[in-house]
Design goal:
single chain; 69 residues; 3 helices; 0% strand; mainly alpha
Length: 69
């Protein structure tokens, strides 16, 4: 089996990267929605962050950046 030309390999990899970036963006939005639900359930972003072992600013920023509500 012959290796495809480098231009074709670059095009294929670029398409894959684009798909992965889209999937990562969608995952960040779903994660932020789950974080928001967790903060609502526990009563605060601080309590959620403590429960998850994350910084509260990272949790708050993710919620703010990736949720629409």
């Amino acid at each position: 089996m012959e290796t495809p030309p480098w231009r074709d390999r670059i095009r294929t990899e670029d398409e894959l990267l684009e798909q992965l970036e889209l999937q990562a963006e969608q995952a960040r939005k779903r994660r932020a929605e789950a974080l928001k639900e967790g903060a609502d359930e526990l009563g605060s972003v601080y309590k959620l962050a403590k429960d998850l072992g994350l910084s509260w600013t990272a949790v708050a920023n993710a919620i703010k950046k990736y949720t629409t509500k």
